[in-house]
Amino acid sequence: MTISLLKAIQDYSIPFEKNDDLSAILESVGDANIVLLGEASHGTSEFYSVRAEISKRLIEEKGFSIIAVEGDCPPSRHVNKFIKGYEDGKMTTKEALKAFHRWPAWMWANEEVARLVDWLKTHNEQLETSKKVGFYGIDLYSLFESIEEVVTYLTHADPTGEDLRLAKNVADCFEGFNHSTEHYAMATAHFPESCTAQVEALFSSIQANEQLYPIEFEQRLNLKLNALVAKNAEEYYRTSFKSDTRSWNVRDEHMVEAINEIRKFHGKDAKVIVWEHNTHIGDARATTMKDHGMLNVGQLIREQNPEGDVYAIGFGTHRGTVIAAKQWADPFKVMAVPPAQKDSWEYALHEAGAFNKLLIFNEKNRDTFARWFGHRAIGVVYHPEYEAQGNYVPSIISERYDAFVFIDETKALTPLQFE
Hints:
By secondary structure, the chain is an alpha/beta fold. It is 44% helix and 14% strand. It contains 16 helices and 11 strands. The chain starts with a helix and ends in a 9-residue tail after the last strand.
């Protein structure tokens, strides 16, 4: 690690000792109307709590009114209805978050998110309906849940019956694959049959007929988002056994489509906060992902919007603990996060001073930090003992993000416990 890099970090970093220190980032956000908040894992308490503090200030000081998260649409809808007062007034925050039951439930059903949801509920109670802050899931894993949402809603709301007929066609098609995304992925990888035509016909019809559905309680938006999930999740699972790159791109393109649908519904002036992993919000063009033909949300959002409208904040840690699992669908565990690998971005931040710090990239220092480093990324499946072989993404940090939050030692988040 070169002395010049360590000195640059020391010269440009801001000690992060209390939440008031986040003011430097809030000032740097300027007039951006889309703020992307990352995380280096899906199981670290500080990443969630700091993102929550930034989000609160963006809402209170800069008029942001949408939080879009790397979570499924149907359970996020429960949270949105709860914080906006659309649900039974007796419902609790914990009951609203219980809707996140699909593995890895801990990503959203945790104490850190619960505290933010409590705050959003209280904040919204002081506002008229049109100004309340919303909470939306923009991921696509909820294929069958979203199809069920569409069919259930259209059974009572479709004035012509045509969209309901198309929705039932979709449900019937997937019924043949035993309601299993894995069966669908395997079958379509080897045989030409698929449900592509059905999901595309449904989404196209709902788009064409959207004026038939009421905007009250965001019914129209919920219908469109779930139909969009059906369309894009079908492609995601159909391509997942054929190409990791294509399925990755389908997923991130979907999340951008979902963000754009939410912005369209709420009006051109609506300001959006996006909570996703660093690998989604940090511009892929500044990583080796581009060499594999991969794109991501951060890249697409920057490409689609004027310069200055988008602000991306990455997060990282040197060591600590994290919630993750050894295999997909296994029970979660608290795991140790070992000290960062030498010659990584996180190692440099630690060596420059073993304390929490903020870095803001601008015209004065972007070139100084424009060099390649491994940047740690921890997923819901994690093997700390092997992380040197696959948990570092070579990146140009000052191009990938506009700012970076470094927590030297972090701890695992706290999943909610349900009876």
